[in-house]
Write a structure and sequence with these properties.
Enzyme class: oxidoreductase
Distance between the termini: 58 Å
Pathway: Cofactor biosynthesis; NAD(+) biosynthesis; iminoaspartate from L-aspartate (oxidase route): step 1/1
Family: Belongs to the FAD-dependent oxidoreductase 2 family. NadB subfamily.
CATH class of the largest domain: Alpha Beta
Structural class: alpha+beta
Largest sheet: 5 strands, parallel
Bound molecules: succinic acid
Number of domains: 3
Protein name: L-aspartate oxidase
Cofactor: FAD
Strand order of the largest sheet: 9-3-2-13-20
Radius of gyration: 22 Å
Shape: globular
Number of helices: 14
Length: 479
């Protein structure tokens, strides 16, 4: 790192963090955390971009806003969809080998998209392929210092309330403080606060909790997306995802008698927006009826494009060529997060956020499939570029107040909290259940005053005050 220049600290090394770090050259960057097992690396969907014949960014924007129930920030949507073709070209230039059909992009279709618009790399192993290419690019970037086994523990604010320093903790538990005027949070989502999620264990809301604790405003915290087809298997931890692209390729949701469950419920049937499909699967399972994803029509050849999903099924004793796979909705993505402006600035000077932990309003009340890796690239590159000018060390403000997320729960209490949030803030909500969950968090001695409970209370509060259903936030008690 060059002497005298204040580093940019990027917490989180999924796709968004990697893009910020790379684009911030020549400013010295400390990239904190590893990308292995990040939500980006696990992603089976690809990148949505209007690349097909007859497709246009305006059509991509229409689908984005329809999925988002019109709650989207339309300027942010335009920015995202207009930049999408260039984002794909940029990733290809970084070495991502996107799937092709001859000279053309091989375009897949997912829920909510009016046409085939998704580029994949290695079929449903897209996230890993993209992260691998970006990891190689970052490894060759002299301005980036990796602190892959460190985590962000706390941040310090100056007298004037701006970011002044961060405290990192290493794998051995040792801490160190680093002075910086700029912290980027790219720490991902909140899925593991819920009993059923497709998210990796690291997606526990720690970055969001720290930002809220420091006084940064949150936005749209009630909007949590449920993926309709996680593999319904017992055990704790992330549930295996069966990508929506399987339904794009012809797989069908069926009940135990083999009847197609989405027929007649939505004009797009199995490819209806995720919230619609997730609620139907949830409704049936709540009534005690299993729902299955039937992939048999894809045959050996069709399934070859889904090596990840096939391997996940096989690991659980399911042969997708012969057996329909039992599925359940599971928390997949948080549309809400730290409120940021179009340039990734939070309400706290020097604190920036990008990717799932941030909320610019682009996804509205429900994210359109394969818009999240896209957002990581578009917003990550823009934020890195904005922060690329080295700040003079002399304007570095002195740390005045340290902000920690606070004490965490023990494992048993965390399990209880996950069950509580899943039952109260799942695909179908009502005020009485939300209020009871809020009360439990206050009175249960193993939960009260923990950072997870404080964050969960913020989510529940947001879900209570939005009384009407919108997008992924469905209130059974609203008209
Ligand atoms: C999927 O592959 O079904 C998920 C894609 C996404 O979340 O965008």
């Amino acid at each position: 790192m060059s002497a005298g220049a204040s580093p940019l600290v990027v917490a989180g090394a999924g796709l968004a963090g990697l893009c910020v770090a790379l684009a911030a050259a020549p400013r010295p960057v400390l990239l904190v955390g590893g990308s292995a097992g990040s939500a980006s690396a696990l992603a089976q969907g690809g990148i949505a971009a209007a690349l097909g014949r007859g497709d246009r960014p305006a059509l991509h924007a229409e689908d984005t806003c329809a999925a988002g129930a019109g709650h989207n920030d339309v300027a942010m949507v335009s920015r995202l969809v207009d930049a999408a073709p260039d984002a794909v070209a940029w990733l290809a230039a970084q070495g991502v080998a996107f799937d092709r059909e001859g000279a053309d992009w091989a375009l897949g279709r997912e829920g909510g998209h009016g046409r085939a618009r998704i580029v994949h790399a290695g079929g449903d192993a897209s996230g890993q392929a993209i992260v691998d290419a970006m990891e190689r690019a970052v490894a060759g970037a002299a301005h980036v210092t990796r602190l892959a086994s460190d985590g962000l523990l706390a941040l310090a604010l100056s007298e004037g309330g701006a970011i002044a320093a961060v405290r990192l903790v290493g794998a051995d538990g040792a801490t160190r403080d680093i002075a910086t005027p700029d912290l980027v949070l790219a720490t991902g989502g909140i899925g593991t606060l819920f009993a059923a999620t497709t998210n990796p264990l690291s997606a526990d809301g720690n970055g969001l909790a720290l930002a809220l604790e420091a006084g940064a405003p949150g936005r749209d915290l009630e909007f949590v997306q449920f993926h309709p087809t996680a593999l319904a298997v017992p055990g704790e931890g992330p549930l295996p995802l069966l990508t929506e692209a399987l339904r794009g390729a012809g797989a069908v949701l069926r009940d135990a008698r083999g009847e197609a469950v989405m027929d007649g419920l939505h004009p797009l049937a199995d490819l209806a927006p995720r919230d619609v499909v997730a609620r139907e699967v949830w409704r049936r399972r709540q009534a005690g009826n299993d729902v299955f994803l039937d992939m048999r029509s894809l045959g050996e050849q069709g399934l070859a494009a889904f090596p990840t999903a096939v391997a996940l099924c096989r690991a659980h004793g399911i042969d997708p060529r012969r057996d329909p796979a039992p599925v359940t909705p599971a928390v997949h993505f948080h549309m809400g997060g730290i409120a940021v402006d179009a340039d990734g600035r939070s309400g706290l000077p020097g604190l920036h956020a990008v990717g799932e932990v941030a909320c610019s309003g682009v996804h509205g009340a429900n994210r359109l499939a394969s818009n999240s890796l896209l957002e990581c690239v578009v917003a990550g590159r823009a934020l890195g570029t904005r922060l690329s000018l080295p700040r003079d060390a002399r304007i570095q403000a002195a740390p005045r107040r340290w902000v920690h997320p606070g004490a965490g729960t023990n494992a048993a209490a965390l399990r209880a909290l996950r069950d509580l949030l899943w039952r109260s803030m799942g695909p179908v909500r009502d005020d009485a259940t939300l209020a009871e969950a809020e009360r439990r968090l206050r009175v249960d001695p193993s939960l009260a005053r923990t950072w997870q409970a404080r964050l969960a209370s913020r989510l529940l509060h947001a879900a209570r005050i939005r009384r009407a259903s919108l997008g992924a936030h469905h209130r059974a008690d609203s008209a």
